[in-house]
Amino acid sequence: MSNYKINTKCVQGGYTPTNGEPRQIPIIQSTTFKYDTSEDMGKLFDLEAAGYFYSRLQNPTCDMVAAKIAELEGGAAAMLTASGQSANFFAMFNICESGDHMIASSSIYGGTFNLIAVTMKKMGIETTFVSPDCTEEELAAAFKDNTKLVFGETIANPALTVLDIEKFAKVAHEHGVPLIIDNTFPTPVNCRPIEWGADIVTHSTTKYMDGHGSAVGGAVIDSGNFDWMAHKEKFPGLCTPDESYHGLTYAEKFGQGGAFITKCTAQLMRDLGCKQSPNDAFILNLGLESLHVRMARHVENGQACAEFLNSHDKITKVSYSGLKGDKYYELGQKYLPNGGCGVVSFELKGGRAEAEKFMKALKLIAIETHVADARSCCLNPATSTHRQLTDEQLKDAGIPAGLVRLSCGLEDKEDLIKDLEQALATI
Ligand SMILES: *Cc1c(COP(=O)(O)O)cnc(C)c1O
Predict the structure, then answer these.
(1) Domains recognised in the chain with CATH numbers
(2) Which sequence positions carry the modification called N6-(pyridoxal phosphate)lysine (predicted)?
(3) d(CA 115, CA 409)
(4) Which residue's alpha carbon is nearest to atom 7 within ligand 1?
(5) DSSP state string for 8-38
(6) Could you tell me which residue, 406 or 43, shows the higher pLDDT?
(7) Whether the predicted pLDDT of 193 surpasses 90
(8) Phi–psi pair at 343, nearest 5 degrees
């Protein structure tokens, strides 16, 4: 599939049936797999042979969909996880351990912020947050001897900052560590971070990839470009023997393109079990088949709503990288030439109270803790997804209390604008 364009990969990637096989990917709804001898199965347990033995670790349906996502991102290998949260946790914890340090953009999804700042901190992993707009020097200054990775979001949820991936990758690589990019909002249709130097890409497939609000899921993709063995001392988990697999060393046995996902599956999925179900993977794949068609419409609707809101006198600020004059317009032109996504953030003149009143008046656009599906929805992050953050942290994350995050779905843009217009008239 690698010679085909991304639109073709969306439809046919990851699975090529042979003579007489099902045209659509089969749902292998089986926890376990049968073997003729214990010896055959033993080889799987020892990672001496590839194959399936228990669906907590790997399942054929999930692997077909992961293979499609790897092709879409231009990666060497990928795995599905139960959620975007577990995808980000796995990607980071596959590299870091207790006593290590990470650097993350401060402009990230609230759930990821809690994961890093609270839960992973309890596990002994400290994080320094940097502005997504920091200079190379400021980013370099955040490094410590025990820094093991840098993390950011292509388009941050919900602040909609656009990350200068090339710059972050350069500084990370100068310090001998990988860059992890959460590419949930643009999807590989609109940006492929690996082409800009990212080493690992993550997704909440719950968003545009599924795209219908049907299945929670995540994915981790390895570019295969990071040379773990060249920085052996930093990455003992990948570069020294794993006692839980008879002393096998991932980076040696599976090479640059195989080590990361194999370790993530064999250790983290084995021990933590954050797996996606085959049924959900099937639903995700249905979404992927139309991802390229849907993203274009999400962008068209996002752009139209952003332009309408930007010209409205009750709105003080609109954030959308497709808007000329937006702080991230230039970075958007570079990384997102076909547009970013359908999510638009804006601030109402009256702040939090007016935001609540406005949202109540919407008829077509629903209030939901969700973004990025076919049906338009909106949310006030300060009172929902980001309510654990202090006012100071909200400010750092670029989320004022009166911010409304609007996710433009696939409806007719004229109907969306009419709905926004009538709700604005009520305040
Ligand atoms: C939603 C989201 C997540 C978390 O994903 P879940 O599937 O809800 O666990 C992570 N990163 C970003 C950018 C998100 O939008």
Answers:
(1) 6-286 (3.40.640.10), 292-424 (3.90.1150.10)
(2) 207
(3) 28
(4) 84
(5) HHHHHTT----TTS-SSPP----SB---S-H
(6) 406
(7) yes
(8) -95, 130
Determine contact, residues 66/219, Cβ cutoff 8 Å: yes
- Give me ligand 1 centre to Cα 248, in Å: 33
Take residue 136 and report the two structure tokens written for it.
Answer: 């190379």
Whole-angstrom Cα distance, residue 316 to residue 32? 56
Q: Which of 92, 109, 163 most suits a substitution to test ligand 1, by most atoms within 8 Å of the C-beta?
A: 109
pLDDT of residue 335: 98
Query: First-to-last CA distance in the chain?
Result: 52
The secondary element (H helix, E strand) that includes residue 114 is: helix 110-114
Q: Which residue has its alpha carbon closest to ligand 1 atom 5?
A: 84
Length of the chain: 427
pTM of the model: 0.96
pLDDT band of residue 76 (cuts 50, 70, 90) is very high
Exposed, middle or buried: residue 33 (CB in 10 Å: 0-12, 13-18, 19+)? middle
* 109 contacts 372 by C-beta, under 8 angstroms: no
Q: Kindly give the distance from the C-alpha atom of residue 109 to the centroid of ligand 1, in angstroms, as a whole number.
A: 7
Give the residues surrounding ligand 1 with Cβ less than 6 Å away: 83-85, 88, 109, 111-112, 153, 157, 182, 184, 204, 206-207, 216, 218
Answer yes or no: are the C-beta atoms of 291 and 10 closer than 8 Å: yes
Cβ proximity of 176 and 232 under 8 Å: no
